[in-house]
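WARN retry 2 of 3 for item q-0093 after timeout on previous attempt; input resubmitted unchanged.
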Amino acid sequence: MFALGSPRPPTPSRLLLLALVLAVLGILDWYFGAELSFALFFLIPVVLAAWHSYRWAGPSMAWSAAAVWLVVEAGFGRPYANQFNLFWNGATRLGIFLLVALLLRELRDRLQAETRLALQDALTGLGNSRMFERLLDAELSRARRHQTPISLAFFDLNGFKKLNDRLGHAVGDEALRLVGETIATNTRTSDASARLGGDEFAVLLAEAGAAQGKQATEKLVETMNRQFAESDWNLTVSAGVATFLALPSTGNECLQQADRLMYDAKREGGTVVKQAVFE
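OK item q-0093 returned
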């Protein structure tokens, strides 16, 4: 599945740039001496590393910033009545830098978690309609640039309302979770999937032409119907898959075509997969 909110890797060029910033700050701190403090500016590389890189980068930059400051203070003969004061100030700065790095990382993690929750269906763990529409529009833009096809599969459960009436919503939720697990297990990492609402699901098959799109959709329908047959739920799956060789202007058009095909499948017997290719 498409990943959401993943932290960027700390590329060598980015870490080198932050190291150069630290070096420049150290030079400026030495040049201006004790009369002009640069302590606040030492936080800049710490903040950037904590916010834009992996978890270890922020604390590592905090240690580096504290070390640069200590070298400047000790190596260039800043006057201290007691050497203990030098190391006390160094430890204090290190503590502040580490605290800022850890707090920023915690804030970033919480924001990422909130973003995932806002774009994720809580019951199935798949994306929700908002996330799917974003990813669909992004994939359409990418497909236009690279002139590649896409396929969009739309799924609906037959008999779901009767299941809820007969066995209760807890069992209905279990059936929806099973569909979510099946889709997540049987799709590629380059694909995007979502529960659009109720018992309707969609899978975006990136770079999938007509044959690949139908094969992937039929595999999902077959797997879900086999699992449902092993229960007493009396559920089946209908699916429509729209393959776009000529790409529409919006993702909503893709969804409408796949939705129409899914309803055609329901009318023709429930478990069939209806496909159309748009050239």
